[in-house]
Amino acid sequence: MEKLLRKGIREAVRSLYGADAGDDLLQIQKTRREFEGDFTLVVFPLSKISHHSPEQTANEIGEYLTQRIDAISGFNVIKGFLNLTISPSEWTTRLDGMHAVSNYGFFEPGPGAETVVIEYSSPNTNKPLHLGHIRNNLLGYSLSRICAAAGNNVIRTNIVNDRGIHICKSMLAWQQYGNGRTPDSEGMKGDHFVGDYYVLFEKKLREQIEPLVAAGSTPEEARENAPLMQEARSLLLKWEAGDPETVNLWQMMNSWVYKGFDVTYRALGVEFDKIYYESDTYKVGKEIVLHSLEEGHLIRREDGSVWIDLTADKLDQKLLLRSDGTAVYMTQDLGTAVIRYNDYHFDRHIYVVGNEQNYHFQVLALTLLRMGYEWAKGLHHFSYGMVELPEGKMKSREGTVVDADDLVTEMIATATAMSQELGKLGGYSDIEKNNICRQIGLGALKYFILKVDPKKNMTFNPKESIDFNGNTGPFIQYTYARIRSVLKKAEDTGVTFSSRKDDNVIPNQKEISVIKLLNDFPGLVREAAAELSPALIANYCYELAREFNQFYHDYSILGEEDGNLRSFRLRLSELTGRVLGKALFLLGIEAPERM
Predict the structure, then answer these.
(1) 313 and 428 in a common domain
(2) Which residues, including other chains, have CB under 8 Å from residue 421's CB and lie 6 or more apart?
(3) What global pTM score does this model have?
(4) pLDDT at position 209 over 70
């Protein structure tokens, strides 16, 4: 529709004023709700061409368009704004055109399509996934689907933080306090089992810190000099040196964690095309750092540590290798980036990581550019806000986190209880009930998280997320299921509808409101990909579901006696269901056929 308007306005400007209007002068937007019209042209920039007042220019262009374009049925002018009204018959034509496109709203990668690598999840193998990881995984997976739907070639990746001092802490705690226990012997998921030893390490470390502080050390000095911390550092050195006993312990405990992660990923419905491990990438990172040092891009201090000086970029100096030769996070991220570029030759690489790492990714991109990797200009940090609970922040070291597995279980249980209370599970088998409640519970969780602007911190309240009314996942899922029910009844009763345009069907305002939203969908997919914002898709879902329900409440579909009008409304319903299903798919949310 906007293409039609742009073409018409260009022709109007050329005919009326003998000049060409570039895209920068054609500012077209949807008309605000309080004014009459469908699309608004901001006329002020065109006044420079017309040499008339904005009001006169708007009236002249409006008259030209209504006389020559059948799709435009009227206009009004408010100061320098030209509000154009699209004829109802044009919206019928638009609906038929959209309905005929099988993959409406999604774009296939064409020649020159970008290759986009998206990294998300990034768990540590010393603890299970928690609520913060859930936001990360849901954002990353949704972004991957949105970017693919916008016509990009997308690769989903994960980097597992499987090495470093934090991993050695859980290893050391199990060595000293585990007494040979295993996840199987304790009947626990492996990631939970190992996570308990990470918490135990911190507990035992605090017990060692207290007397050191009492003896006069600062808390920081006491933490660094405590025997347990010294042993953990020693274990890290043994691991990097390839000590067989240490490596075997590391492999065993990580294998426990990976099995646990896989269960959680399946429950959340997220997946990856390739998983990288920092135990591999840090080696490449060290090679890159040492090579760059030889080329004079880096500096080695007297203690043997290697740094990069970014003060010219208004940052500071950044450590890349410790004095004992061990790698830091930046080292392994350098290696991971280079390996990924060699694997995929990406145009863009999106890191889905919380906003507490903003500085880290600034340094990463600048360091790679300083080392001569021009493709680092395509690195992008998708920085999102933290998730908190009504009672405040979570702390992994103290074990005060909301476990991802527990939250998924709680959401499904809450969905089950609410569905039973509302009487929505009658006539279903136990298998059907369990599947529907799983879909509702996870849909509520995902939608509640994804509808929030990712840049903002958010407070997650499970009870608020599950509601069959309002801006929630279950409300949208229920709307989809309602549409599928209508279409099934039509099929069962032999009512058919075609994609053929019926000239005598003039849609009412509620129907037009739904069609206008359906018309927005392809552009919204591309906007969400450009803005990297699943929230745009989520809130569109709610708006479309709300508008359809208002239409459904006021007008009969299958009970409509006029056959042409009934077919029109069935096409409108079918396309609405199809678009809702696609939009939910972009959010990683399942659309139940029945609820």
Answers:
(1) no
(2) none
(3) 0.91
(4) yes
